[in-house]
Amino acid sequence: MSTQDIQLEIDGEVAIIRLNRAAKRNALNDALVLSIRDTFQSLPATVRAAVIDGAGDHFCAGLDLSEIKERDAGAGLHHSRMWHTALEQVQYGPVPVIAALHGAVVGGGLELASACHIRVADETTFYALPEGSRGIFVGGGGAVRIPRLIGAARMADMMLTGRVYNAEDGEKIGMAQYLVPAGQAFTKALELARRVAQNAPLTNYALMHALPRIAEQPADQGFLTEALMAAIAQSAPEAKQRVRDFLEGRAGKVSKG
């Protein structure tokens, strides 16, 4: 599904989801957030990986402040929870998601990026959380997801002081796993998505849904969850065939990159 705010293209087993508000630097309004939710809920069963990109010069410049409304505490709570539901479709949806970052990855844009499983940034990328200077607080899951990438102290510094990280420094602290030359983030993200799409579906599911939860569990619970997930994944016919292919010399071995 494509809407005024989002474009969806299916390229083989990869869904390309492009934020389409370039004139607003892809700032997130409610319509765009809901379009993200609906798009991930409606992906064809043939899709096995996704790329999120932003039209124009920026990935996403955050919340569209022109749409901020006077809300009481209850309305604000429900609005934030709507964002949570939408971004949970990215993190815990049907397929792994690779973000192609360029230009502004600010506020809600960083919250969206942090919900993705792999982030590729080009050299134009910069990261910020200006909510602190605007008298507001993150509400799209950033308080949970961003500290898991960079630590609570760094996030607090960004919000307290308005600190902006450039692409190189952002990659060093964990904002992105890949850093590429300007203009190449989408190409690299698509390359990775095609590689991810070749994995066994249950392995990808385990990495998306089980691994983050295992990381938050006490060790004894984590070991049990790991054992259960390993047993389920290796029981799949595709997994058994892949192991046979390796043992019988039909699959490549790991080599130095």
Structural write-up:
- The chain is an alpha/beta fold.
- It has two domains: 6-196, 2-enoyl-CoA Hydratase, Chain A, domain 1 (Alpha-Beta Complex), CATH 3.90.226; 201-247, Lyase 2-enoyl-coa Hydratase, Chain  A, domain 2, CATH 1.10.12.
- Helix content is 47%, strand content 15%.
- The chain contains ten helices and nine strands.
- The strands form two sheets. It has a six-stranded mixed sheet, with helices on both faces.
- Helix 2 links the parallel strand 3 and strand 4 (97-101).
- Helix 4 (142-150) crosses helix 5 (152-161) and helix 8 runs antiparallel to helix 9 (219-234).
- The longest helix has 19 residues, at 73-91.
- It is globular.
- The two termini are 38 Å apart.
Keywords, separated by commas or semicolons:
single chain, 257 residues, alpha/beta, 2-enoyl-CoA Hydratase, Chain A, domain 1, Lyase 2-enoyl-coa Hydratase, Chain  A, domain 2, 2 domains, six-stranded mixed beta sheet, three-stranded mixed beta sheet, 10 helices, 47% helix, globular
Summarize the structure in short.
With 257 residues, this protein is α/β, with parallel strands linked by helices. 47% of the residues lie in helices and 15% in strands. It has helices spanning 30-41, 73-91, 108-115, 142-150, 152-161, 167-173, 185-196, 201-216, 219-234, 237-247; strands spanning 6-11, 14-19, 49-54, 97-101, 104-106, 118-122, 126-128, 165-166, 178-180.
